[in-house]
């Protein structure tokens, strides 16, 4: 793994994307930053982080053969890599919240942003951005359900060691992906999916509340919710939220 360490930067994903466009990157090139000024999450959301307290990284992976139709299996693998890394640290009640937030005791501890380069319906490479709240203890007042490893474990955690552990888990799951073990990744993802098979309230894009139960995720990434009348409806990112 080639490691590039930076101080304050707009976004590790943006930096690595620019680098990939101008140079031939070594596989598993990793960029870390002590602070992100414009950190990005899913669908343009922002990632807020205190300087020098958290793991902010992006990893470049090149693929030999990965069809665009399998891109959400990549998301499964990445989310599981973060989940399994954090599990090694004995964090309580870990779960993956669709599509790929990691929760500890129902509070967000990690976020993921995967950006793919696609040619002829094949994923040529991916930039996998991961933020983990590590040693930060105070968060903005508007962020209610967030936590950190230090909050949960009541001790400091080595950010450098966490990065090593994370890249090892990512590499393991990327290898499974390239071997075609899609169903293995899907099965494990669904086993740790937050609120699966639990009746609860949701809110749709029109802010209408409805009762339903998560029963799965499609291979193209949509959340499957069983409604009160037993019909199953699929929702994309930003089409539904937890009420």
From TrEMBL:
Q: Which PROSITE patterns does the record cross-reference, listed alphabetically?
A: BPL_LPL_CATALYTIC
A Pfam family (short name) is BPL_LplA_LipB
Q: Which SUPFAM superfamilies does its entry note?
A: Class II aaRS and biotin synthetases (SSF55681)
Could you give one GO CC term from the UniProt record? cytoplasm
Q: What does UniProt give as the signal peptide span? A: none
Q: Which InterPro entries match?
A: aa-tRNA-synth_II/BPL/LPL (IPR045864), Biotin_CoA_COase_ligase (IPR004408), BPL_LPL_catalytic (IPR004143)
Q: Using the record's annotation, list all stretches that form the BPL/LPL catalytic domain.
A: 1-178
Q: CDD domains, per this entry?
A: BPL
Q: Which UniProt keywords apply?
A: Ligase
Instruction: Give the superkingdom in one word.
Output: Bacteria
An example Gene Ontology molecular-function term: biotin--[biotin carboxyl-carrier protein] ligase activity
- PANTHER family assigned: BIOTIN PROTEIN LIGASE, BIOTIN--PROTEIN LIGASE
Query: This protein is called what?
Result: Putative biotin--(Acetyl-CoA carboxylase) synthetase
Organism of origin: Tenacibaculum maritimum NCIMB 2154
């Amino acid at each position: 793994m080639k490691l590039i360490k930076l101080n304050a930067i707009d976004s590790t994903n943006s930096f690595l994307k620019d680098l990939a466009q101008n140079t031939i990157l070594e596989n598993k090139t990793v960029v870390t930053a002590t602070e992100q000024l414009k950190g990005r999450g899913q669908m343009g959301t922002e990632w807020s982080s205190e300087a020098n307290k958290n793991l902010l990284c992006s990893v470049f992976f090149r693929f030999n053969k990965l069809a665009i139709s399998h891109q959400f299996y990549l998301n499964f693998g990445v989310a599981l890599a973060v989940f399994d890394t954090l599990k090694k640290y004995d964090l309580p009640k870990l779960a993956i919240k669709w599509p790929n937030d990691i929760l500890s005791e129902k509070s967000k501890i990690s976020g993921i942003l995967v950006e793919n380069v696609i040619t002829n319906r094949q994923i040529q490479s991916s930039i996998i951005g991961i933020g983990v709240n590590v040693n930060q203890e105070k968060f903005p007042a508007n962020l209610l359900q967030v936590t950190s490893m230090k909050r949960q474990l009541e001790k400091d955690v080595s950010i450098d060691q966490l990065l090593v552990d994370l890249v090892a888990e990512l590499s393991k799951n990327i290898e499974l992906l390239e071997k075609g073990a899609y169903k293995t990744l899907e099965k494990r993802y669904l086993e740790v999916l937050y609120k699966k098979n639990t009746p609860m309230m949701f809110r749709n894009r029109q802010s209408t509340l409805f009762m339903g139960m998560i029963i799965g995720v499609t291979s193209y990434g949509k959340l499957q919710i069983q409604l009160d009348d037993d019909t199953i409806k699929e929702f994309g990112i930003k089409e539904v939220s937890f009420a």
